[in-house]
Amino acid sequence: QVQLVESGGGLVQAGASLRLSCVVSGRTAGYYTMGWFRQAPGKEREIVAAINWSGSATNYGNSVKGRFTISRDNGKNTVYLQMNSLKPEDTAVYYCARSQDDILRLSASAYNYWGQGTQVTVSS
Question: How confident is the model over 101-105, as a mean pLDDT?
């Protein structure tokens, strides 16, 4: 079994920064791509960022490119999402997810383990 626990969400003003963390526990052996997704009320879940196991490859959703940075520390089984220049439209529940393998995919269907989510609210 694999557990993912996100933290770091909160209420901030537009222009502020937040850093989300996701700790993976349980069956952590192996090489897996990790991703961050988000879901706003009434909207579909969308990719925010993904990173391969080595950290050598990343990909981002168009709406966050240049503002968000994904990283990982495999020694700590932790994935991070640094969010800068936050906008009200970034308001959502943010989910950490582990992919089925180490291929950098952006579709939620490729991820089979999910955290419970952390709320990020950006006020204008």
Answer: 93
